[in-house]
Amino acid sequence: FTAEGLDVPALFGAAGLDRARLDQPEGRFTIDEVSRLWELAVARSGKPTLGLDRALAATYGKLGVVGYAMMACPTLLAAVQRLQRYMDVVSNAATYAVQDDAAGCWFELGHLGGERPVPRQRTEYGLLTMLSFFSWITGRDFKPLAVEFVYPPSEQAARHEAVYGCPVRYGQAANRALLSWADLALPLPARDATIAALHERLVEQELQRLETSTVSHRVRHYLATRLSDAEPRRERAAASLKMSDRTLQRRLRQEGTSFQQLLDETRRELAQLYLRKP
To answer: Which residues contact 187 (CB under 8 A, 6 or more apart)?
Structure first.
């Protein structure tokens, strides 16, 4: 935001956010707080494509210890899959999914748990950040085959295609980008099995320290990715989390909730999200 010419202290003040939280290693902002910040930033800058710049995304879009764990993977595909497992360390409001396609692999970014709409600029910047990071760890400035957004067509469509370097489609089912199998097979320059194991242990420790390591959060993520297909069953959720049904019930009770309660809450949040989308 500073690089885009905004007065960040004033921006945080207007959003009612404490900047000191930025200096707390385990500090977090809620999904709605970040969306509010983006709303104000877009309004004050007057830029409908705020943040839509490859240099900005490459400079500021780092992923911390998760990024280092990805860099040590053997290929880009392995790094993308590792991010899927460790996304909670980056954000417990973001959802991340990977889906195979004949031409390659889609990686999808979403948000869960907020009450206010997520500004399109926030999503556009987030997707560009991930693509820039993939280019950085491969050492190649590759482009996706396609990018899709749930948002309606933009008056800045030409800029979108120039920045992403591929066709951009709007009014789609998800916010996602398609990577080719050839790019996903690229070996990473910093690949190292020993370093990868070290960083994996560090990320696992981070997961244990964060609130996002709770079983209830993992169950909510499972439900959010499956509710659109069929009625999720507790036994299958337990199997996906690699624990018995009995253990899952006990862990959820310890966290003061239940599978049915999480199912109801996730249904409500997804319903609110769908109602906000034309």
So the answer is: 74, 75
